[in-house]
Amino acid sequence: MFSTSTKAAWWLATFFSVLVTAEMPTQTEAEPEFLQALENHTVTLGRDVHFTCVVNHLSNYRVAWIKSDSKAILAIHTNMVALNPRLSVTYNNHNTWKLRVSNVQPNDSGTYMCQVNTDPMKSQMGHLSVVIPPDIVDSATEGSSAQEGGSIRLTCTATGLPTPAVLWRRQNNKPIVFRHDGGREKKVVETYRGESLELSHVQRNDMGTYYCIASNGVPPTVSRRYQVEVHFIPQVKVTNQLVGAPLGSDVELQCYIEASPKAMNSWSREDALLSDKLAENPKLRVKEAIVNEYSLWMNLTIKSLALSDYGTYVCASVNALGKMESQVSLHRLELSMNGFGAEEPMVSGAAWQRARSSPTGTRPAASHAQYHHLTRELPPQIYALVIALLRYLTF
Ligand SMILES: *[C@@H]1O[C@H](CO)[C@@H](O)[C@H](O)[C@H]1NC(C)=O
Ligand SMILES: *[C@@H]1O[C@H](CO)[C@@H](O)[C@H](O)[C@H]1NC(C)=O
Ligand SMILES: *[C@@H]1O[C@H](CO)[C@@H](O)[C@H](O)[C@H]1NC(C)=O
């Protein structure tokens, strides 16, 4: 018997000379033949994989494994030639050889050949593709903020094999808005492809959660969330600047606030903070209802109006960028009809405390909308009288 190293040397010589110098089988014997094709494999980094080569009628020939792109001989029979501890060959003592690659690395990708040293030699090939699931490597902050009109840039660097595609989308499929030319031009998309998302001339409705999603066909797809904040001076609007209600009735004063960063919101009267007195005054209740990231309703209910409750109420909001307030004048409504007016407050007038372009969908639902077209024409006091008269006549 030859020693292992002698055998290996002999085989190397054989493969390089492409000559079979050892005992030739007689021509009457059956030639070696492959029983099945070598597989192709797509394997995730770090996993193990094997190629199976099945040869019948091998006779005195030998099976070798070759990495065909580098021409490196990896193994002859079960003897390893390549100095790679992650490679091994097993033989089932019949007709099957398996080349195992454990803990696959990117440079294991390529074409592998199972070869028999006949003349001419016989071989078959299989491909190994090593893939790496996507990863997002950015260590950058996951939140970004700017003042309204400013710019925000979010970046998401993804690695993987093949190179992942990076896609941006917003929570709840809200539109991503790109503004150009000082905000006059805009392009609205649901998704954006690219590692860097640049938002300029940001508006408050650009605020919210953004996701970067990296995928390359190798599961799992990964994503990262980014919080975008747009800051601005609070805006405060009362639904009705003038509210009339009869003595003894309950009234709700409605105030709509937009603010970011978070603001301190309050109802006050004659410099006294009503919210501070809520605990002591069972007649008052402030209810807040969140509309979205930066908008809320803050409604003040005053129960069973007394004479001292009439007057001016102020809804105010203050954050790091400034303070805004809006007033409601609550006045007494004289009614001669029994019970009428007690169930709901009389309403007149509604206006933002300053001109603004309201983003669609954020305008408060105006109660008593049917009266609003009148409001614009008439001074509120006269309007209130007209409405009182109209109501009186209708009943
Ligand atoms: C392996 O891939 C090659 C090239 O893509 C192809 O020609 C061959 O048929 C594949 N082999 C198998 C067993 O699918
Ligand atoms: C393949 O990559 C592995 C891990 O990065 C390394 O240890 C090995 O030396 C490389 N082999 C070759 C042939 O480049
Ligand atoms: C305040 O009033 C508005 C307008 O009627 C209403 O939409 C909102 O739900 C109210 N909020 C609360 C907390 O009652």
Automatic annotation (TrEMBL):
Keywords: Cell membrane, Disulfide bond, Glycoprotein, Immunoglobulin domain, Membrane, Repeat, Signal
A UniProt-annotated Pfam family: Ig_3
UniProt xrefs under SUPFAM superfamilies: Immunoglobulin
UniProt superkingdom: Eukaryota
Gene Ontology annotations for the cellular component aspect, listed alphabetically: neuron projection; plasma membrane
SMART domains the record matches: IG, IGc2, IGv
Record Gene3D superfamilies: Immunoglobulins (2.60.40.10)
Cell compartments where the protein resides: Cell membrane
Residues making up the signal peptide according to the UniProt record: 1-30
All residue ranges annotated as the Ig-like domain in the record: 32-129, 134-223, 234-331
Stated name of the protein: Ig-like domain-containing protein
Organism: Bombyx mori
